[in-house]
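Form 7-S
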Amino acid sequence: MSEQIGELLPPPRLMLTPGPSCVDPRVYRALATPLVGHLDPWFTTMMDDVQVLLRRVFRTENRLTFPISASGSGGIEAAVVNPLEEGDEAIVCINGWFSERMAIIAERTAAKVHRIEAPYGRPVDPEDVRRVGRGKKVKFVGLAHGETSTGVIQRLDDYRKVADELGALLVVDAVATLAGVPLDVDRQRIDICFSGAQKAISAPPGTAPITVNARTEEVLRGRKSKVQSWYFDLTTTMNYWGKERTYHHTPPVSLIFALREALRLVLEEGLEARWERHRHNQQALVAGLEAMGLEFFVPNPADRLITVTAVRVPKGIEDLKVRRQLLDEFNIEIAGGFGPIKGQIWRVGLMGFSSQFNNVLLFLAAFEKVLLDQGFHVSAGAGVAAAVRASLKPQSVAIGERK
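Output:
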């Protein structure tokens, strides 16, 4: 080879995206821990720590709680293909790209899938789920707690009631909400709940925490056919994360080191304090964006996801130009829309280590400058001033309440 490949030196980005989020220095140090074998007695003992920490963050006593060696999309696949088989009926609530992905995966099983759809930017109506499921033997009701593609949150208790009426498992995608938004798996009686390490937990991407209750374990043991995915078959993976520690695959050892430290940070802060920090910073962000004359994609404040805020791109402004200037000039990364709303929204993530008040102020100041450069009129300093004022008063709409 005639040319040498240079050293890896990525720029110091501030990631205000729907994921991944920035990572605490302690997590980076854990990521650099020397490798050991995944069947080393030291490592298999350390796995117990990870499971204990995950149970505390999920707020569950579920035995089957562990990180899947995959991204959040692997979590979706595991949660869907394990309970569903031929002859089953499933309802999937769709209001964005990732809940759509849950339906697509379900449709690749032999189950009959009923889609309940809502316009992007709005939650699915639980009454629609009740109506479609009435008179059917529904086994599975699946939804995204926080839909990152549109910035919508859904109130889980409403769907639990409907799932109870239908006798169905409640399967929840908490990729964008775990450790950032109030979630209590046992109290809310969620049967399968999964997440992604790179969001509000603020670990590197590559692991998908999942928890499965005893009721679901019985369902898995009673399957008439094999799970269609060998890799995501929980009936075998659970043996590696169970008492036996039976080899299944080689897990990402370094990522599990990092996840352990990130979970320790979550619990050191305290879940309630962490939820409040995310709420407080999003409140300041929303006030700043409103003062800049921008509109939100989700019209009802109570339906807005705290960890990801979706903002409409103003007429005459090019989405990509704004994001590129933010990145090139300020090293700040935000996300655009995709699918049917590509070019129509910006998505600003305030998750985990990225959710800091100084990051809100920095972003608003940079965003104002970029928008002015792109021809959108903004009163100088309006966004930052509004964010500061908002940080000094309580939020007017509590999580899960309608104004």
